[in-house]
Amino acid sequence: MFFLYNILVYLTRFFVGIAAIFNEKLKLFVDGRKGVFSFLVSEITKDDKVIWFHTASLGEFEQGLPVMEQARKDFPGHKILVTFFSPSGYEVKKNTGAADVVCYLPLDTKFNVRQFLEIVNPQLAIFVKYEFWPNYLSGLKKRKIPTLLISGIFRERQSFFHWYGAFMRKSLQTFNHFFVQDERSKELLRKINIENVTVSGDTRFDRVAEILKRDNHLEFVQEFKQENLCLVAGSTWPEDEKILVDYINRDSSKRLKYIIAPHNIKPHLIEKLKNGFHKKVVLFSEKENKQLADYDVLILDTIGLLTKVYNYADMAYVGGGMGNTGLHNTLEPAVFGIPVFIGKNYSGFIEAEKLVSLGGIISISNKNDFANEIDYLIENQEDLKKVGAINDNFINKNKGSMIQIGSYIRKLIK
C-alpha cells in the first residue's frame, strides 16, 4: 500500500504540473514549491532549534496561531517554522509575524521528506486539525521527533475507520499525542486502539477570545454608526448579498445602519453591489471628506478590518452559507456577544451546528426568513440581548485548550 501511495504522489505531481498551465491557483501551488529547499537552507542553520507547525490553509493557520504565539513566549530561543499546503493560506500569511520562517510544504515524497527533515531537524512537529502525510509522519517517527496533532477532528467517513484504512491507521500511530476537539473524535480513535488522546477543544476559541483584549476602536465606524443599531455582514457572497440588499432596500424604518464586507472586493463586483441599493451608500475607499453619519450603508472594499468592525455590531450576518462556497468564521462576531445570522448550508461546521441548536446563531433559508428574524430581534431588545449572551457564554465555556496544549509542549521541550 505504501508503494501505491508513493506512485500516486508522483502521478499527482505530474498531472498538477500540467493543470497549473491553465489554472492560476495550481500555478501558485507548483511555483511556490520551487526553491523551497534552498530557501530553508538560507533561513535555518544547523545550530537553530526549530518548532515546526504544519497547516493546510488559512483556517488551520488561525487554529494553530494561539499555539504558535505561546511557543514564541515559552521558547524565545527557538525558531518557529510554518508550512502551508495550500496557496490560499501561504499567500495571505507568508509575511506573518507569528513565525520566523514560512514556506510551502514540499510534496510528500520520500526524497522530499528526507531533505526537508535534514535541513529543518525540528525539535517538535505540530500538525493542525487534519493533515496526515504518511512519508512525513514516518520520517518524524524514525528520527524520534515528537509529533502532535492539535484541534484534531475525526469523522466516521474517514479512511482510518474502515477496512481499507489500515495504511492510514499506521500513520496515526506515529503521533505522540492527539489534542482533539470533541468526545466523538476521542471515541473513534479509541475504537482503533489509539489512547494517547486529550479532548482539549478548538484552539480557535482561545484565538477569538483574544480579540476582546485588543484595541478594536475604529473612528470612521463610530462616525457612521452614531447611536443607531448596526448590522455587520461579513465575508458575503452574491447569494448572501441578494438577501441583504432586498431587506435593506425594503427597510424604511431607519432603525439600522448596515456595514457589508464582501468576500470578493474586485472593483466591478463592489460597483455592482453598490448599484443594487436604493439607499445612501458609501465605500470605505471613498469615505474621506464625507459625512458618514448621513449614509445608510457602508461597504468595506478593503481587507483586514472586519474583526474590529464586528465590535460595533448589534447583530451580524456571516456569509458563505447561503450558497455552496463554505460558511465563513462565525466565532469572530459571536465573541462580541451578539446574535449571528447565517445561511442554510452549515452542515459540518461544528461551532455553527452547536450554536444553531443553542439559539445563538440563527440559520435562514430565504429573504422572508431573514426579514422575520431580524425584525423580531429589533422589536424585542431583551431577546436580542439573550441571543447574544448565548454566543458569549458558549465561547467562554469552550476556551482554554491552550492551557492543556501549552503544558504538554513545555514538558517536551525543557
Descriptive report:
This protein is α/β, with parallel strands linked by helices and 414 residues long. It has 2 domains: 2-201, 3-Deoxy-D-manno-octulosonic-acid transferase, N-terminal domain (Rossmann fold), CATH 3.40.50; 216-398, Glycogen Phosphorylase B (Rossmann fold, 3-Layer(aba) Sandwich), CATH 3.40.50. 46% of the residues lie in helices and 16% in strands. It has 19 helices and 14 strands. The protein has helices at 2-19, 24-31, 36-43, 58-74, 87-93, 110-120, 134-142, 166-172, 183-191, 204-211, 219-225, 238-250, 267-275, 306-309, 331-334, 350-358, 367-379, 381-398, 401-412, and strands at 50-55, 79-84, 101-104, 124-128, 147-152, 177-180, 197-199, 229-236, 256-262, 281-283, 297-299, 315-318, 340-342, 361-363. The protein has a 7-stranded parallel sheet with strand order 3-2-1-4-5-6-7, with helices on both faces. A 7-stranded parallel sheet has the order 10-11-9-8-12-13-14. Helix 6 (110-120) crosses helix 7. The radius of gyration is 23 Å and the shape is globular.
N→C terminal distance = 38 Å
Low-confidence stretches: none
Find the structural class using helix and strand composition: alpha/beta
Which strand-content bin applies to the residues?
A: 15-25%
In the CATH scheme, what's the topology name of the largest domain? Answer: Rossmann fold
CATH class of the largest domain reads Alpha Beta
Q: How many strands?
A: 14
Tell me the radius of gyration: 23 Å
Sequence of strands across the biggest β-sheet: 3-2-1-4-5-6-7
Mean pLDDT across every amino acid position: 93
Helix amount? 40-55%
Question: What's the domain count?
Answer: 2
The CATH H-level superfamily of the largest domain is 3-Deoxy-D-manno-octulosonic-acid transferase, N-terminal domain
Label the CATH architecture of the largest domain.
Answer: 3-Layer(aba) Sandwich
| Number of helical elements | 19
Largest sheet: 7 strands, parallel
